[in-house]
Amino acid sequence: MALLPKRRKAPTAAQRKVFGHDCKLDDQGKVIEQGIGAPGNESLEHYAALARWEPTPENIAKYQAATAEAHAMPDEDVEEEEVEA
Q1: pLDDT, tens only, 41-73
Q2: Neighbours of 50 (CB within 10 A)
Q3: In this structure, what DSSP letter does residue 27 have?
Q4: Cα 55 from chain centre
Q5: pTM over 0.70
Q6: Alpha helices in the chain (DSSP H)
Q7: Does residue 85 surpass a pLDDT of 60?
Q8: Which of 2, 67, 69, 74 is least surrounded by Cβ atoms within 10 Å, i.e. has the fewest?
Q9: Which residues, including other chains, have CB under 8 Å from residue 37's CB and lie 6 or more apart?
Q10: Rg of the chain's alpha carbons, rounded to an integer?
Q11: What Cα–Cα distance (Å) separates residue 32 from each residue in 4, 11, 27, 45?
């Protein structure tokens, strides 16, 4: 007899109505957060709010790292011009 992968539970109608038609569940049947602000996809505003309202050294360091990363990334909408040396 072959081993089959563990089946995941399907979201209920109520979960789909609240969290969207494409919501996903973890192994315990809890909805997995997705989108902007979800764990692993925090916005710069999230870190700014933590640094302002819960100013622990850890939160301030996270805000500074997120700000540095945001300034290091080029804007996707702006096309860079080629410069000849």
Answers
A1: 788 888 888 888 888 888 888 888 888 887 776
A2: 18
A3: T
A4: 22
A5: no
A6: 13-19, 44-53, 57-72
A7: no
A8: 2
A9: 43, 46
A10: 20
A11: 23, 11, 10, 21
